[in-house]
Each structure stands twice: as C-alpha cells, then as structure tokens.
Amino acid sequence: xxxxxxxxxxxxxxxxxxxxxxxxVADPRVSLVAAADLRPEARAAFAAEFAAPAYDDAxxxxxxxxxxxxxxxxxxxxHADLTALAARHGKHVLVxxxxxxxxAACRAMIAATEAAGVRLVVGPSHxxxxxxxxxxxxxxxxxxxxxxMVTAVTFTDFLYRPRRPExxxxxxxxxxxxxxxxxxxDVVRRLVGRPVRSVRAATGAWDAGRPTEGAxxxxxxFEGGASAALTYSGYGRYDTDALMGWVGETGGARDPAxxxxxxxxxxxxxxxxxxxxxxxxxxxxxxxxxxxxxxxGFVLVACERGDLRLTPTAVxxxxxxxxxxxxxxxxxxxxxxxxxxxxxxxxDGKAPLHDGAWGAENLAVCLAILRSAAEGREIAxxxxxIRP
Length: 388
Ligand SMILES: NC(=O)c1ccc[n+]([C@@H]2O[C@H](COP(=O)([O-])OP(=O)(O)OC[C@H]3O[C@@H](n4cnc5c(N)ncnc54)[C@H](O)[C@@H]3O)[C@@H](O)[C@H]2O)c1
Description:
Elements lengths: L5 E6 L3 H12 L3 E7 L3 H11 L3 E2 L2 H6 L5 E4 L6 H10 L3 E4 L7 H14 L3 E3 L7 H9 L8 E9 L20 H17 L3 E9 L10 E8 L4 E7 L27 H6 L4 H7 L20 E6 L3 E4 L3 E5 L4 E5 L8 H11 L9 H20 L3 E2 L8
Parallel strand pairs: 1-2, 1-4, 2-3, 4-5, 5-6, 7-10
Antiparallel strand pairs: 7-11, 8-9, 8-15, 9-10, 11-12, 12-13, 13-14
The structure holds nicotinamide-adenine-dinucleotide (NAD).
C-alpha cells in the first residue's frame, strides 16, 4: 500500500475540511498535495502545515497535475460547479454533503463525472460511521431478518452555531433539512438497504431571529415495507448526546454540565467573527481526539427477528434468544471509512455506496421533507426526478 497513495487537493478550507483533516493526515493511503480557498489566512495555514501549494482559485487547483482527487468542502451552492470543474480536469471527486441543492444539479454532477470517466463519492456523512456499517451488516442476517422499523432521534444546538446569512435562509440551502436531515437519511437508508418510497413530514421554524427550519419530524416508507421515523431539533435545549454516553457527534468527549453554550456564545456577538474562529487554521479550532466513533444521535433498528441499537463504541444486539454487544473501539481518527470508499473506487474500480445516485437520493428525501411540510401531504419519491 505504501507505494500507492491518493493525492488529495482540497477546495474549501474551513469547518468541513477541519473535521476530516485528522483522518486525511492519519491515513497512510492519503497525501494532501494542494488546496484552494478564497481566504488568505486559510491558504497560509495549509501551506505551512502541508508544505504544499494553496491556490486562491479552484481552477488552478484542478489544473495541478499533482492532484488526483478533489475534495470539495465549500458551501452547498458551489458543489455542482466545482464538481463539473474537477471532472473537466479529469479529477476524481469527493464532495461534501448535501451533494447540491436541487436534483438538476445532482444530475449534472453525475453526468459530468461519468462523461469524464472519474469517480464521484458524496461524503463524509454519518452513513459512513462504523456502527452504522456494523448494524447494516447484521440487518438481513439469519438472526435479525430484514429491517422493519427504524427510529432516529437527534437533538443538537445546530441552529445556534455561527452561520453565514444563507445558512439561515432555506431558499438558499439553509436550515437543518439540507445540512442535518441529509445525515439522518443517509443513516436510515444504509440500515434499511432499500429505496425510500414516500415521505410525510412537518418542519419547525420557531425562532424569528433565525428564520429557517430548526426542527423536523419525518415518516419515511421504503420499498419492501420498512418505515423510519426521524426526529431532529437543532434548538440547543435537550441534547441526544446524553443518550450516547456524552460522546459528541464527531466522536469527541462532551461536558455533561455544559448547557446552552452555543446560544449564549452567539448572544450579541459578531457572528461572522465567531464563524471565522471555528474555521481551519485558527488556533483552538482543532477537532478533539475521538473517544468513540462519530454518530448522529439515537438510532434503534427493529428487524423482523431482533433489534439493533447503535452507540458510539458498539452495536447492541437484541437477538431472538440472547442479547450481546458488537464492540467497536474508538478509532485514531473517525473518518477512515470515507477514504475506504474513495480508495476502493479509484484504486480498485469498485462502485462506491455513496456515489452520485446515492447522494441525489439523499437530497431527494430532503426536498420531499420540505415539500411535504409545505403542502401538508405525503410525497412519493418516484415523483421527483432523481435520475437523468
Ligand atoms: N460532513 C460534515 O461533518 C460537515 C461538517 C461541516 C460542514 N460540512 C459541509 O462542508 C461544506 C462547507 O461547510 P463549512 O461550514 O466548512 O463552510 P464555511 O462557510 O465555513 O467555509 C467554506 C470555505 O470555502 C471557501 N470557499 C467558498 N467558495 C470557494 C470557492 N469557490 N473556491 C475556493 N474556496 C471557496 C471559503 O473561503 C471558506 O473557507 C458544506 O457543504 C457543509 O455541509 C460537512
């Protein structure tokens, strides 16, 4: 393996990149060879850390012959154009979630990468988490049988983390449905292993000062008869990390005594400055070392013959005659499964699970949540045009 590494170039050096950075640094299959960002301080930090070029323009990064895989970690609305740009330069693409903001953009991204003969992987997202993969491997087995009913509950402080204006404007891709439902959908789709058939949802926008969706409930039905109930609130009150041994979403330890920290920090503060303080290259913004795997809150899968509960360090299995635990010790860095998919696709020619069609279907379910809530009716996924 040592004589073959994936040469990554990163577009967008901020929070998204910073969360994946420990994995890209720790994984011997990856070399970070270049970056591009609009912010000079981010470029300077990258150049200093990796002794590699940091461009002020994504086109220059895509033209760099050293770059083999372009990791697009810029705001949602830029993903489609940057994917097309990378594909035109013959680069494989790892693009952050959500894949894009509409299905036409997803179709264009799939078409551009297919035409160029390059791979497209959409991630990281919580469907890559090892407890999800371990539980998905048990679903359908002799002991458990097919998944019938998934319950996923996530309460966070998402809405009160510092935001750019468009992140609080649903029409421009803001709110918890585009940024957070996409994780929960990714998790339940991987666990059920069948296409989503329909969505009925309600959304909540309860803070006039942050006028976008901060919460939702959605009921998904799947082909084959399974269903999933998704609940999410980003209003920073109850926190489902309490159900996860106070291991946070990105695998780090949380302080159980801390309460309403995000809301308090935001109160009267300069929001762009706060956002900048969380970006890559700023002292103190580094991701804490993991004490468990990443997770997206409480997830319980009821299968025909047994139940599976996901935790940050295990899958708790409740079989027909016994209960046991599949231990999943904390990793050195949390996102190696993303590198696995890119490696398998680029080096071994294996179709990734989180390919463009998968990312587009995740987005279709997000759009169905928004439409169902707006129109007060169930939305059939077949009525959305996912494929070209
Ligand atoms: N998977 C995860 O856990 C996770 C976590 C956070 C963010 N994200 C995703 O990452 C993406 C970025 O989110 P963020 O919070 O880091 O955004 P951000 O606004 O903090 O940062 C975006 C960065 O991209 C740069 N940028 C914007 N347009 C550019 C362009 N055309 N060329 C070069 N650089 C450009 C900006 O200068 C900035 O540094 C989003 O799609 C988000 O959903 C994913």
